[in-house]
Amino acid sequence: MEKNLVFDIGLHRGEDSEFYLKKGFDVVGVEANSALCEEVSYRFQAEIKSGQIRIVNKAVADRSGLVKFYANSKYSVLSTINPEWAERNRRHGNDSLECEVEATTIPALIAEFGTPYYMKIDVEGSDLLVVEGLSHVTDRPKYLSIESEKDSFRGLRREFSILTSLGYDQFNVVNQPKVVRQRPPNPAKEGRYVGHQFQFGSSGLFGEELPGPWLTADEAIEVYRPIFLRYALCGDDPFLRSRLVRALLRRVGFAADWYDTHARRR
After folding, report:
1. Which of the residue ranges 23-27, 90-94, 186-190, 222-226 would you say has the lowest mean pLDDT?
2. Distance of alpha carbon 196 from its chain centroid, rounded?
């Protein structure tokens, strides 16, 4: 494991990589959208020149070669290689442009760049596919994070089952809209200290700098129970179809936020 290496799987506009770079980490950023890769390449010209960040313009899949990519026409953050996720986006009024992009795999990335200390995964509907790629390597990141399942509690249990089978035995549940309130601790517990304001949608702190307790898999699943009640009532595909009722629930603080699960191997 490369103690100073971070994989940013789902680089997007480099919102998270900016933080990792400022803290002194080397970064491998992986992004399927070529336009976003060009944007980030311009943003991090100096870091690319120094070799601190390497950008891979590919999707991450279970095989290399060409795969279908659904580039969201309204919100680039919703782009995906998962056709079911693209269909879900369409139902909510967010159409996608279908094209083909080159894909790589987690074992191929690790073979080329080494095993990262932390791997951030945010690839819209395919996070678990990326995690499952770690089953084909023996050396795995100490920390990783994924955007957790929102539609099925059985699917959530499967996420934890796969993570524990890979040796991850401690978990931290992070409310993502609240990441903007996070502040890096001083002295730093990961890399070097930086003052940083997280943008909305950023993954935020990681590793030993995470707020909140580390939990067992069973404890983390219990934390998700009331969260899934919110998803069922006013999430993406809620039981309550009335917009008025859902608006009232949000006004009283009953919001269906999205959450990341961070995992640690002791």
Report:
1. 90-94
2. 19
Q: Residues 6 or more apart from 1 whose CB is under 8 A from it?
A: 114, 115, 116, 117, 139, 140, 141, 142
Q: Which domain holds residue 236?
A: 2-264
Q: Which tokens belong to 229?
A: 């009640």
Q: For the residues of 12-39, what is the DSSP string, one character each?
A: TTSHHHHHHHHTT-EEEEE-S-HHHHHH
Q: 211: which DSSP letter? A: S
Do the Cβ atoms of 149 and 156 come closer than 8 Å? yes
pLDDT in tens, 150-187: 888 999 999 999 999 999 999 999 999 999 999 999 99
Specify the number of domains making up the chain: 1
* pLDDT number for residue 244: 67
Q: How far is CA 121 from its chain centroid?
A: 3
Residue 266 burial (CB count, 10 A): 8
**Stretch (H or E) spanning 56:** strand 53-56
Transcribe 77-134 into DSSP letters: GG-BS-HHHHHHHHHTT--EEEEEEEEE-HHHHHHHH--EEEEEE--SS-HHHHHHGG
Answer for the pair 210, 261: CB distance below 8 angstroms, yes or no. no
Q: How confident is the model at residue 242 (pLDDT cuts 50, 70, 90)?
A: low
Residue 27, domain CATH: 3.40.50.150
Is the C-alpha dihedral spanning 98, 124, 47, 179 positive or negative? positive
Q: What are the residues facing 5 on neighbouring strands?
A: 26
Q: Is the pTM of this model over 0.85?
A: yes
